[in-house]
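User: Fold this, then the next.

Assistant: Folding the first:
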Amino acid sequence: MTDRNCDDSRFPLCLELEQSKVPDSLNPRTPECDDLGDLTDSTGILYSPGWPGTYPVSTDCSWNIYIADADYIRISFISMDLELCCDNLKIWEGSGNYGIFIDTYTGHHNEYPDILLHGPYVYLEFHSDSSGQYDGFELHWRSEPADTACVEEYSSTDGQIYSPGFPKDYIHNLDCQYIITTDEDKILRLTTSFFETDGDKDYLKVYDGGDSSAPLLVTLSGTQHNVPVISSNGNQLFITFNTDDDFSAGGFDMSWTSEAACPVPFITVGSMCLRFLFGDFTFGQATVSCVSEGGTMATIRNAEQLRDFFLYVNQL
């Protein structure tokens, strides 16, 4: 295309702009991709091109998940086998790759945690280079309403619990609830491997029971190192995680185990089995009373036991 008549002497400077075709290598979609357009079903399955065979080389695919009434969209990875160096799947929250970039996924993984994203759009791009063909990926998506998107119940004797999207930063405006239940004759020990939130604006609470009416054991916020083990007195823990619409952070990584409960009439207080006898006792009388009840005088041996003791006494 010529913008002016370059033979015209009235113009001392003449520019010729020649329109050229965009190279195929820069096209965001190649013929091997399924022409799916927007994926608008509330649930669905997405495969790499060529599935269940290996994906082709030199391929660029993109998909836009659009669910009009979705508060959240959950992405669950079923399998992933991509060339680690050069092939990948990228995910954005929003429509197109100008939204909020979430992560790049590559290599061989079967245990990526679910990704919980704000609706109504999620955008995905798959790229393979000119060498190496692997099995590709399979992922599921589903729409989730705000009141159930972050609610989980666990009924095993041990396990792990993560903030949504961990190890990536959690998203805004979460109202998560987790209920952990073990066998009736056991108690729960909750260990924190990582904890980081945006100051005290985003926080996690642990309750000693099955809902928020149970005694509050601890509130965690900010960056926490060496969080003491949190122990239940019964066979349930109720955990809430709340975030605002400001900054986010790394979230949390916790695990729980189950142990035999203290024998009746003793109760679990942190790592101790205690029974409280109230009255006016001399030390000798108190010792005799403890022995007659099948125990010994309790000794607070460290800061963790002291913390657990006062947490319990404050609830009496």
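Now the next one, as you asked:
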Amino acid sequence: MKKFRSMKKLLLTLTVMCLALGSQAASTLNGLLVDANDSLPLIAATVKLLKANKDSTYVMGTVTDGNGLFNLKDVAPGRYVLKCSYLGYDNATRRVTVEKTGRDVNFGAISMKMEGILLKEAVVNGVKTPITVKEDTIEYNADTYKTQANAVVEDLLKRMPGVEVSSDGKITANGKEVSKILIDGKEFFSDDPKMASKNIPADMVNKLQVIDRKSDLARLTGVDDGEDETVINLTVKKGMNNGWFGTVTGGYGTDDRYSGNLVANYFADGNQFTFIAGGNNTNSQNFTDGGASRFTRFGNNSGITTSQNLGFNFNVGSKDSEKFRAGGNVNYNHSDRDARTTT
């Protein structure tokens, strides 16, 4: 009898907990971003939801659609800051408290003002970002985002609204992790986006497309398996998609420290070949550390790691048909660590 009563108490407790959790239903935040001057919608503007704490912790993000609308789903109860940004415009922020009732929040129309730059008594207003939204694809014009000489794709990505690159090189677009980078629609080093982002020159990119698509298996079989992925496709500028191109970087410093990196590409008739090689003794990892661009990282390490890396990627087939293609890649990595201690 006592055992039965204990079971009843346990079931009652679990029921109450479930009801309590259910009462804290998630909410949806939505709104419209418009130009403060003409009330026209701002397309592909970046919308981020941050926690209203000291660190402004990132929660989720999105971009506005072709009508300037945004939608953030499954927002848990709490206090937040909504941050809206658009190239050439001042940021707009709104504070919001999401209640436990699960009630949705509509911000209505949020007006954003163009930045004004004073230059010799003349005001030069920023221009709207040349971004095109097509169904599940957001397309950026790469030439709009200026980078330094010898910049790689990662440097370009960091300037794109809605795209973020973490300290370890992980790429997210509109709050979704990017699983692959394609070049002219063809996979580049399979599921390692950093091979492209840290090695391909930024000045070869014409358009950068963020694409939400079905998984490889779903696209192959035609059966939706419910697994979607976000990929980035880089379209190559005319004149750079036929022939050889690449980069060579290197450096030498004190204590015989060195770093070098080679990227060689051959594109012709829809075929692609890429060879990457690197070596250093600066505790970097070449392929995913940007070669010599990370030359000064060794400063506080207690030992020396010497690394050598080789990589080869290819994609070949008939330029008239995407059905008859073959591709693959191979990587080689080797490192030795010389640990040093002081007594």
